[in-house]
Write a structure and sequence with these properties.
Elements: H1 5-16, H2 24-35, E1 42-46, E2 59-60, E3 70-71, E4 75-78, E5 92-101, E6 115-119, E7 131-134, E8 138-141, E9 145-148, E10 158-159, E11 170-172, H3 180-188, E12 193-197, E13 201-207, E14 211-212, E15 223-224, H4 227-237, E16 241-248, H5 252-265, E17 268-272, H6 283-287, E18 293-298, E19 302-303, E20 309-313, E21 316-321, H7 325-343, E22 353-357, E23 362-363, E24 369-379, E25 382-387, H8 396-399, E26 403-407, E27 413-414, E28 419-424, E29 434-438, H9 442-453, E30 458-462, H10 464-473, E31 479-482, E32 485-486, E33 491-492, E34 501-515, H11 527-536, E35 542-543, H12 550-559, H13 574-582, E36 588-592, H14 593-598, E37 602-616, H15 623-633, H16 635-643, E38 647-648
Parallel strand pairs: 5-6, 13-16, 13-17, 14-15, 17-21, 19-24, 29-30, 35-36
Antiparallel strand pairs: 1-12, 2-11, 3-10, 4-6, 4-7, 5-9, 8-9, 18-20, 20-21, 22-28, 23-27, 24-25, 24-26, 26-28, 31-37, 32-33, 34-36, 34-37, 34-38
Helix pairs in contact: 4-7, 9-15, 9-16
The chain binds adenosine monophosphate and magnesium ion (MG).
Length: 649
């Protein structure tokens, strides 16, 4: 760190006045008031490069379209008065003029009374003619005349000059976003260049000592920079130019230089990270030095997204998104996109919305507008919205959700059964064909891979075995994958089935003690001896599992009353156990063989666990459910499961 302590404390005092948390609406209103109204700079662009830009000015036609009276059909240009008496019994004979008016050919001879001129679709009407007769309605008489047996009204099959677009007409209004149809209008008027709102340039900077760009190796304790990529893409998705400047370490001097550089060459700056009060968090202090009026809101009553910081520096918006990717994306879409689009002259985003029933209670923090991401599945009477609750640090909760619902700041929960409005991330809902709700297993992906290949959309929602069973009983899914040991009978899964559910055997997963290969404390021992040795060694740290996990039941049986060091470290997944041991944070734990194998760890088998599927019988005959059952039974998935260390049942 390079800044002197005195400097830092003065800035923190300045900063504190902004720490009042604003409501979402108040923060947005203040931000917009500091930025608008503002001039939207325009630029000329060739028509072909103007797609997606809003027009800066009205487009006024300076020609008529069509430029001349034009035939709409292949036929003959005539004087309608000549055909006034034509009928089935009284054909009128017209002599053909010595001319054929093709498209692009200017006529040279007039149509005098009693004559007609052959004309193609799109040909200009010759002098004297006021109507066109379709070739199908004429009868040739030699090569020089035709008979016509029906009358023609004046103007029949003629498009008059300027009937499509009249010279002087404003064909497109300022603000219209140019799509292919607008390009067509301009092309018809002969316009090759249009004046559009210049696309704002938005600089994107990630901050944090821990960030590594994708493609480079991950050092210990580092993570990949997710926000840089996702924020840049979201800016482009909104029709604005993003310039990603990389990740800058939490170094005040380096960050200030990067931010100043970015503001010199861009119209807006979006940073992420560094908004919390951590020791290395400096960006909000720098903003105060970058221009007036500076910080407008630091702290917004949003969840996720509280640490959002909004600022304006000499007319340019500077935004610091929260570091967690999901928080960053929510605040970006909710608070930044409206401003960004307005700066770009674009209309507000029109998000598609649907109504869906929430099957479980969602707790919410009073006083903060809360956004909850949901996965949609089709229920018996309408859509069901499952909250995908992995927390704001989880990128998957954003990427795998279909949309989100909003819980008002004044509510402390959303009750189970509520019909809620869901804002979709995509223009349309695609309800999955097969819905799997329950315990997740990496083996599941090996089965569903086949379905994906045949275009069947599978949605798997991980809520644990008991949550899955409850969903299956409510008829909200097709399958609930479960691995529940009944202590009394010592059997897996069957004792937990309710009426309307049947068991489809899945596979067996070997549970066992996991440790680092070569650790002499465990190598070569039986599971029981290994645990005994570990409990006897006070330097040995374990990693446990969460209450309610099938694995936890096995661990508790082994350790009994003992509470060894690490017992209270209770992660929720097999992978977390493996990671803790591989990274030397713990020495032993319990996981399934495929996970130990994938992490390169030593493994002592203990007991086989049954991972089966509770099938909702009422849904059994659905084609997609049948396809899942076929995939589960196929040689292909059985081989894949075996290769990954599972034993198909
Ligand atoms: P911060 O606001 O800098 O304290 O960051 C909060 C959390 O978000 C920390 O866990 C950071 O590692 C994480 N984070 C910050 N920036 C990024 C990023 N660009 N990509 C992924 N995670 C990030
Ligand atoms: Mg940080």
């Amino acid at each position: 760190m390079t800044n002197a302590p005195s400097q830092r404390s003065r800035d923190s005092v300045d900063q504190d006045q902004f720490l009042a948390i604003l409501s979402r609406e108040e923060a947005l209103a203040r931000f917009e008031a500091a930025l608008f109204p503002r001039a939207t700079p325009a630029e000329e662009r060739p028509l072909m490069d103007a797609l997606g830009y809003p027009l800066a000015r009205d487009i006024v036609a300076d020609i008529d379209v069509p430029p001349f009276d034009r035939s709409n059909v292949d036929g003959f240009a005539v004087r309608s008065a000549d055909l006034a008496c034509a009928g089935e019994a009284t054909p009128v004979r017209l002599v053909l003029n010595d001319e054929v008016i093709a498209c692009g050919t200017a006529p040279t001879r007039p149509v005098l009374s009693g004559t007609a001129t052959s004309i193609a679709t799109g040909g200009p009407l010759p002098r004297g003619a006021d109507a066109v007769v379709m070739v199908e309605h004429t009868h040739p008489v030699g090569a020089r005349a035709i008979d016509i047996r029906r009358a023609a009204s004046p103007g029949q099959f003629v498009s008059y000059a300027g009937s499509d677009i009249a010279r002087g007409e404003a064909v497109l209004r300022a603000g219209t976003v140019i799509g292919s149809r607008e390009i067509g209008m301009c092309a018809a008027c002969g316009i090759a260049k249009v004046s559009v709102v210049r696309r704002p340039r938005v600089a994107v900077i990630s901050t944090g000592d821990e960030l590594v760009q994708p493609g480079l190796p991950l050092r210990p304790a580092a993570i990949y920079d997710t926000n840089g990529a996702i924020v840049s893409a979201a800016i482009s998705e909104n029709g604005v130019e993003a310039v990603f400047l990389g990740a800058i370490a939490d170094d005040e001097e380096a960050l200030e230089a990067a931010m100043r550089g970015a503001l010199e060459t861009s119209d807006m700056l979006v940073l992420s990270g560094g908004t919390s009060k951590g020791a290395g968090d400096v960006s909000h202090r720098i903003i105060a030095r970058l221009g007036k009026p500076g910080i407008i809101a630091h702290g917004v009553a949003l969840k996720p997204g509280k640490p959002l910081c909004l600022a304006v520096c000499d007319g340019k918006p500077v935004v610091i998104l929260p570091g967690f990717p999901t928080s960053a994306m929510f605040t970006f879409h909710d608070m930044i996109v409206p401003v960004l689009r307005r700066m770009a002259g674009l209309p507000p985003r029109s998000d598609a919305k649907v109504m869906a029933r929430v099957p479980v209670r969602i707790a919410s923090e009073l006083g903060r507008t809360e956004f909850v991401m949901v996965s949609l599945v089709g229920g018996a009477d309408g859509l069901i919205a499952y909250p995908s609750g992995k927390g704001s640090g989880a990128i998957t909760s954003f990427a795998q959700a279909d949309g989100f619902l909003k819980i008002d700041a004044l509510a402390d929960q959303m009750r189970a059964g509520t019909e809620a409005e869901v804002t979709l991330f995509t223009p349309h809902v695609r309800v999955p064909d097969v819905v799997i709700v329950g315990s997740h297993c990496t083996g599941l992906d090996l089965v569903t891979a086949q379905l994906a290949q045949s275009g069947i959309a599978v949605r798997s929602i991980a809520v644990g075995s008991l949550g899955g069973l409850a969903a299956a009983k409510r008829g909200e899914c097709d399958f609930a994958p479960i691995h529940l040991l009944d202590e009394k009978t010592g059997t897996y899964n069957t004792p937990f089935l309710a009426d309307g559910l049947e068991l489809v055997p899945g596979w067996r997963r070997m549970q066992g003690i996991v440790f680092r290969q070569g650790d002499a404390r465990f190598e070569g021992l039986s599971a029981l001896d290994a645990v005994r040795a570990a409990l006897a060694d006070p330097a040995c740290i374990m990693v446990n599992r969460n209450q309610g996990a099938g694995t936890r039941i096995l661990i508790d049986r082994l350790v009994g009353e003992a509470r060894p060091d690490g017992y209270w470290n209770q992660p929720k997944s097999h992978n977390a156990v493996a990671a803790a041991i591989a990274q030397h944070r713990a020495d032993w734990g319990m996981t399934i063989a495929p996970v130990a194998q994938a992490a390169g760890l030593g493994f002592i088998p203990l007991a086989e666990e049954h991972y089966d599927f509770a099938l909702v019988t009422a849904r059994k005959n659905r084609p997609a459910v049948q396809a899942f059952l076929r995939a589960l039974a196929s040689e292909e998935s059985r081989d894949a499961l075996e290769r990954a260390g599972f034993r198909p049942a």
